[in-house]
Amino acid sequence: MALKLEPGTRLVVATHNPGKARELAEILENRFPLVTAGELGLAEPDETETSFAGNALLKARAAAEASGLVALADDSGLSVAVLDGAPGIHSARWAGPARDFTLAMAKVEARIEEEEAGAGDLAAWFTCALAVAWPGGPAVVVEGRVDGTLTFPPRGDRGFGYDPIFVPEGGTQTFGEMDPAAKEAMSHRARAFAKLKAALL
């Protein structure tokens, strides 16, 4: 039997980040009533996997089991070529307990400067893994990626996380400066969702 996600199904989004929940609601074209793990008071599981897909699946399964609802989880992050793919799955961790991404962006810039050999190489990419898990049942995981370059100092106050330092390939504006609809049309999350839609909708 093919797995299907029926519009109108109430989903729990495995996040405590309101910005991410809003973005996922828009990507889902508001077809599903969403409640976040934060709103339900669910604990955040330790992200012990070594890949975005692994962590997304772990979070989706934990939220599905704890809530009894179909769960959607996203694990995403920024990878920098000259930093061997860091911060990668530790992207949120670089922002510290207060989730201060101004601090995280400064840390990325400082680390790049330390890598003097790569001073000219600002290639980077965002990865997003999306997982949907049914309570006690199957799960589906997909991944999307968008390549680009970093720019400093950060520009723009839209989006969240590392958006103000990331300029997608072929663009001139950072994700932090772009109109949200323009970002949505090409983001790593949108690319992952297109795959999820093909698989489940």
Helical percent range?
Answer: 25-40%
The first-level CATH class name: Alpha Beta
What is the straight-line distance between the termini? Answer: 14 Å
Low-confidence stretches: none
Q: What structural category characterises the helix and strand content?
A: alpha/beta
How are strands sequenced across the largest beta sheet? Answer: 2-1-3-4-5-6
Question: Overall 3D geometry?
Answer: globular
Number of domains: 1
Average pLDDT score: 90
User: Largest sheet, if any?
Assistant: 6 strands, mixed
Report strand %: 15-25%
CATH architecture type: Alpha-Beta Complex
List the helices and strands and how they pair.
Blueprint: E1 11-13, H1 18-27, E2 34-36, H2 52-67, E3 70-80, H3 101-114, E4 123-133, E5 139-150, E6 166-168, H4 180-186, H5 188-200
Parallel strand pairs: 1-2, 1-3
Antiparallel strand pairs: 3-4, 4-5, 5-6
Can you walk through the features of this model?
Helices cover 30% and strands 21% of the residues. 40% of the residues are buried. A hairpin with a 5-residue loop joins strand 4 (123-133) and strand 5. The chain has 201 residues and is α/β, with parallel strands linked by helices. The mean pLDDT is 90. It has one domain: Maf protein (Alpha-Beta Complex).
